[in-house]
Amino acid sequence: MTEEIIKDVIVGENEDYIINMGPQHPSTHGVLRLEVCLKGETVKYLIPHIGYIHRGIEKMCEANTYQQIIHLTDRMDYLSAHMNNEAVCMIVEEAMQVEVPERVKYIRTILDELNRLASHQLWWCAFGMDLGALTTFFYGLRDREMILDIFEESFGSRLLHSYNTPGGLMWDVHPNFQNRIKEFIKYFRKKLPEYNQLLTGNVIFQERAKGIGLMSKETAIAYGVTGPSGRGSGFACDVRKIAPYGAYDKVQFNEILRTEGDVFARYEVRMDEMVESLSILEQLVDNIPAGDFTAKMKPIIKLPAGEYFKRVETARGELAVYVVSDGNKNPYRMKFRTPNFSNLFVMNEIASGYKIADLIAISGSLDLVIPDIDR
Amino acid sequence: MTMLSRDELKDIITGFVPEAEFPEGTQLPEVVIPAAKLTELMEKLKSDSKTSFNYLISHTAVDFSTHFTLVYHLESVEKRHLLVVKVKLEDRENASVDSLAAIFPTCNYFEREVFDLFGIRYNNHPNLKRLFLEDDYGYPLRKDFRDEVNMIER
């Protein structure tokens, strides 16, 4: 009897042990299923399965006007809603050769950075929580609330604002806008050292983050891993530097690069990016030029027939929009190259060989937003 | 380490693939090549030190009702020039082209997406399965796709 049981155990040992992580799993932050093949506690390989919230945004775009498409782009990467809006607006403005007022460019850039900050704060909360540090969640959400209040006051919505329209903005910002941003910068400059005390310097956290999920620069380029995840491996991919848009050519900021390529490097890039975002905000907030909040646009927008391509830097990487227009009010084909789509598929490459607990840290460090992958 | 201009790119690519066509008046430098030459050109564009297009930004397809056009957006990380490579597939029913997954790993998933939404088959693809939709669903981004239940015709 005992011999038989032992034999069974040994027979099972050589077989692949496959476990599904998700589609409902707290650490995937959405409906993503990872088919993980384990050997003991070590990940042999993993296969991501996506499509649980595929809404066919690209197909919907073909039946909608450009003004309506703006509202769809919010729903892709809901934490970088403003940057997604801006990408579509800029592609329309470029195609129609509309000169956007300086005021709009400044306000858009400020909102980009506020949105990036809010997104990185939420990532910090969730990443800490993934690794078992619950306090980060309360700290991060408390500070993020200040940014969301600024959004709510000016646009009436907190997450999916759709505040951009082709040619400019829906309406002018609230008179309190500048003061509240200045208040926030002052407040957050004091709070950021707390973040570092709580998590960055924590030995338990560092043990779980350093040397885990190594990604070389070549891997990052080959898999198209952009944004902070790519920059943690030394891949200089910041679109704000490569092809400046908005008011990014008028401000001084550094592209944060790390060469270690592990979870901790990606963490550090995001933490430093928050400081850079604050510095960009400081440079812009007092210099918003007076003027119109939108350029004159026709009510029905028809792009001249042709093909257009535009890239922006969202909080998670490079969003590229490719439009084929046949001269109608709807695009003939609209493609969104979303950052998370490429960032997800590098996971098999960087998580194989690590423990299953490290997989949580790795997926957290890539900062995935699932609706952005599925579209 | 400098960016190549449109004309310089044109000269180099004509050296690789003599049949290449270069449409004028496009936003980005563009090249249209026959499907049979795709792998050869991409390999050279990536490995040649003058072009060094090592980063595939995106890959997608467009359905022009009479034919498919495959679109590849390439960038060189070191030199920062961009190039759009296009391939026309005339046969809409049995559209197929060589996979680039071995040259650009990220293309693996873009190709699966295109297969899922357009039904274009990729030869030598490591894992050509549908990415978002079920196996018996049609190919929704084709212009002749009809869904009586979920689509409203205007």
Question: Helices and strands in order, then pairings?
Answer:
The complex is a heterodimer of chains A (375) and B (154).
Chain A: H1 2-13, E1 17-21, E2 24-25, E3 30-31, E4 33-39, E5 42-49, H2 57-61, H3 66-74, H4 81-96, H5 102-130, H6 135-155, E6 164-165, E7 168-169, H7 177-200, H8 203-209, H9 217-222, H10 227-231, H11 239-242, H12 263-285, E8 306-314, E9 317-325, E10 333-337, H13 339-344, H14 347-351, H15 356-366, H16 370-374
Antiparallel strand pairs in A: 1-4, 2-3, 4-5, 6-7, 8-9, 9-10
Chain B: H1 6-16, E1 30-33, H2 38-47, E2 55-63, E3 68-75, E4 82-89, E5 96-98, H3 107-118, E6 121-123
Parallel strand pairs in B: 1-4, 5-6
Antiparallel strand pairs in B: 2-3, 3-4
Walk me through what this model shows.
The complex is a heterodimer of chains A (375) and B (154). Chain A is an alpha+beta fold and 375 residues long. Chain A has a single domain, classed as Cytochrome-c3 Hydrogenase, chain B (Orthogonal Bundle), CATH 1.10.645.10. Chain A is built from 16 helices and ten strands. Chain A has helices spanning 2-13, 57-61, 66-74, 81-96, 102-130, 135-155, 177-200, 203-209, 217-222, 227-231, 239-242, 263-285, 339-344, 347-351, 356-366, 370-374, and strands at 17-21, 24-25, 30-31, 33-39, 42-49, 164-165, 168-169, 306-314, 317-325, 333-337. Chain A has a three-stranded antiparallel beta sheet. In chain A, β8 (306-314) and β9 (317-325) form a beta hairpin. Chain B is α/β, with parallel strands linked by helices and 154 residues long. Chain B has a domain at 6-93: Beta Polymerase, domain 2, CATH 3.30.460. Chain B has three helices and six strands, in the order αβαββββαβ. Chain B has helices spanning 6-16, 38-47, 107-118; strands at 30-33, 55-63, 68-75, 82-89, 96-98, 121-123. In chain B, strands 1-4-3-2 form a four-stranded mixed beta sheet, covered by helices on one side. Chain B has a two-stranded parallel ribbon with strand order 5-6. In chain B, β3 (68-75) and β4 form a beta hairpin. Chain B starts with 5 loop residues before the first helix and ends in a 31-residue tail after the last strand.
